[in-house]
Description:
The protein is of the alpha/beta class. The chain has helices at about 40-55, 70-80, 85-100, 115-130, 160-165, 205-220, 230-245, 280-285, 285-295, 305-335, 340-360, 365-385, 390-405, 420-435, 440-450; strands at about 1-5, 10-15, 20-25, 60-65, 135, 140, 180-185, 200-205, 220-230, 250-260, 260-265, 265, 305, 455-460, 460-465.
Amino acid sequence: MKLYNTMTRKKEEFVPLEEGKVKMYVCGPTVYNFIHIGNARPMIVFDTVRRYFEYKGYEVNFVSNFTDVDDKIIKKALEEGVTADEIASRYIAECKKDMESLNIKPATANPLAAQEIDGMIQMIQELIDKGHAYEKNGTVYFRTRSFEEYGKLSHKNLDDLQSGGRELLVSGQDEKEDPLDFVLWKPKKDGEPFWDSPWSKGRPGWHIECSEMSRKYLGEQIDIHAGGEDLIFPHHENEIAQSEACNGKEFARYWMHNGFLNIDNKKMSKSLGNFRTVREIGEKYDLQVFRFFMLSAHYRSPLNFSAELMEAAKNSLERITNAVDHLKHLMETARTEEMTEAEKEQADKTAEFVKDFENAMEDDFNTADAITAIFELVKFANTTADGNSSKEYAKTLFDLIVRLGDILGLILDRKEEMLDADIEALIEERTRARKEKNFQRADEIRDELLKKGIELKDTREGVQWKRV
Ligand code: AMP
Ligand code: ZN
């Protein structure tokens, strides 16, 4: 399996640190609002990477944090007159809802920065002890030039950075030994959340949060560290400096970065008024369509979002789901159970499509080509399965398409979800039937609902139902 490593700027063969295992850390969102559709890109992309590794039999330890200690959260808390904690908890809960709608598998661990302050203090202390950090007036800075390989990920040269150093200054520029030094710990300002530390009452810098959480949940060395391309510099560059200076070993073997999502060919931003949350998109479309749209482009390419492109994605996805529905129908109506010899030969041909799918995924997760392989399989199914097919043949094709879809996180086997209102209406009809002593109809309704995954319970307070 080959993946593009930002560090070497090459596609490299994936070799895990430990056989059969993948340790992955993906920088998560800063939780001060509903997540926007750009934030969903790394979530969808790296969930798909994880799913493919799992399909190949790897055990994936997938850690993704929530940044809940941050200036933007504090600002929002002050605006609303609530605590930063309240803002963070609210938007973490909302983010998890969106992730579920996007069919993103829950991470092995979702650490929260605010819960990990002790470990961060410990790591900062280790950096001070090793001469890589220093304290001035309660602020602790990383001594950037003490880490000789600084710039290796973003391919920046220290002296060029020095001349462009102005934008790198975070705070207290005069007290720094060098303009390139960045903050590990900063003293609190009025109204801000803070923690005790050996240097001041204050809070950690953003970069140390990820270095520490990655080390705590995955160990000093990991296989893959990932995030959006805007994180390459300074965030990931600084994470590398901190982790490698502290632990004395290579931090991550592979660095993966997704390209940016634009809207109508413009950068998405609040000031341009083209900012879209996942929640808003979910009101207009099934979020499966959005996930499909995301994966129709290569993850490293820039991706443009527009209403027309979403319509096109919707139609394409429907071609697949229609084929799956048709196969399901054939499975139910087929006159013969087992495959004929001719069908067995046809079924063997599907291995080609699986190979194409895998080859695409193993070439740096080319999901666009993997989707093309699914389309080829759909075409094959549409031309070879019909009313005369056996149940087994229809099921073989059905299972295969659903399985490949699942690797991309697409739910193709649409279980007919009943709406609450339809369930209630049937329950009312059943109650009427029972009053009229039409027990046969009442039982029919009960069985019909059970088939659709709804279980009824007759209680003294009336009929209760639940999805099973
Ligand atoms: P943030 O909440 O800004 O820390 O971002 C969380 C994740 O979303 C990071 O991996 C960012 O790189 C990524 N991200 C933010 N905006 C976009 C965008 N427009 N397109 C793709 N990824 C983005
Ligand atoms: Zn991070």
